[in-house]
Amino acid sequence: MRRTVVVSALILMLPALASAQRGGGTRSEATKRSDFGFDSSDSFGRRPAAVSARDLQELDPLAILLDKHKDLKLTDEQTVKLRDMEAKLDSAHRMPFRALDSLNRQMPRGGSGMSDDDAATARTVGTLTRLIIGGVRERYDSVEKDARALLTDDQRKKADDVLGDSHDKLSRIARAGRGPRGG
Q1: Domain residue ranges in the chain
Q2: In a 10 Å sphere around its CB, with 0-12 CB exposed, 13-18 middle and 19+ buried, how is residue 147 labelled?
Q3: Which of 47, 63, 4 has its CA nearest to residue 178?
Q4: What is the pLDDT of residues 20-55, one digit of tens each?
Q5: Which CATH architecture has domain 1-8+63-177?
Q6: Total-model pTM
């Protein structure tokens, strides 16, 4: 409960932090960035690729189970219950996902020439990103537990296979804090 309050408070503070820490910049500069978080105008001063809301949405256990409903042989009743759970989860994740994508846009380029302000911004963005990812992971774990309660033993075994890769990816993202690196 306390963690939820802290995360909520931090999310509400994001616009103030962003405007206080980051100045200038034009829209044209923002559009130069590719989907991987790099400035397409040069190859120097690259930023690591940050985890986006879309990356986390792809690891949503309910969406994965619903996508594989035929393989799992879900009944209509199970499918309806999972869809209801998914709608509630989407509603709960709307603001954190928006905040995560906003934070990714605020992350300054790294490198040896990083100013003290940019370094402070990077630390703040990293901390907030880790909190958001941690909250998403906790909700995913919780809804997966609830979803498993709806499944039969055979369906749970198949669900383990279906969800295995997403568990691994989510663990790597959570450990890294800023998501997969590279370019």
Answers
A1: 1-8+63-177
A2: buried
A3: 47
A4: 444 444 434 443 333 333 333 333 344 445 788 999
A5: Up-down Bundle (1.20)
A6: 0.67
